[in-house]
Fold this protein.
Amino acid sequence: MTLVDCDKSYIESFYGLLKIDLLSLRTLDAVSNMLANIEKNEKTKINFSEIPEEKEVFSSVFWGGNTDFIFQFGSDGMKDWLRKLHPRNIDELTMLAAAFRPGPMQFLPVIRDVLYGNKEPCLISEKLRPILIGTCGCIIYQEQLLRIFTDIAGFSAEEADRIRAAVCHKNREEIEAVKESFISGCCHCGLSEEESERLFEQIVSFGSYALNKSHAAAYAVLAYRMAWLFYHYPAYFLASSFRYSEDNDAVLILYRECSRCEVEILPPDVNISGYDITAKGDTVRIGFSMIDGCKAAGKSIAADRRNNSGYDSLSDFLLRIRPDE
């Protein structure tokens, strides 16, 4: 295999190559582990792609910020906004996933007030209503940038995408080069010059942090489906999430959430425990890997039990497991 290190912008501009980010997510391993264990122990096969949207999942998991192990929604700041916004559906989760970033974050208080019915969406111009009404009058997604450039400023789709990329990559020189034609196009569409100026500055001020909606929606759908598993199968969710977590506070989160969800934590047992934490029904059992100094011995115990049987007595255990293990 030959590996070549290239400048992304150069090869995109001169050779037409496309850069793609492929994320290797431990989260997906955790989900696969949950589904396999639920099927094995509960005799229930869940189609992860067809999990239904249920209001109880939103109110129980998201509204309380009970999302420590939920993909993209586990930070303290995100949990705080979940408690403030009370998202009611995946569309609103998608909007929050995209808005919780340094640029669009300025609009979160406005989004909260509009969602609660405390104020009307504040649009720079009514011409923007068809584009921005779905996000409470705020520019949140890259797709909205594209529509503003094409539908309002009169740019071609190709020109709009080029400027979108310039905005997202903070290419100030290329952005400023189209300012005059942008304002001219907006004025031709019916905006005043002052409105056009405000719109342009708003785009520039936050666009470098804007997600595309499809990206945010993928995050939101995965997060919701994980929350559904948490709501219906808390023991399996917590056990698998802990197993694959890299959070330094994972043990504290596990114990706290098990207590809150009334999931019993069972102690390690040489005849029952696996190497990793396991779940069954409304219980989780501590695995050998969670015991300090027991990781190597835990693997030997689990392997010996698979190849033979359980241990009848302490003497049986000591005879079958070497002391140095």
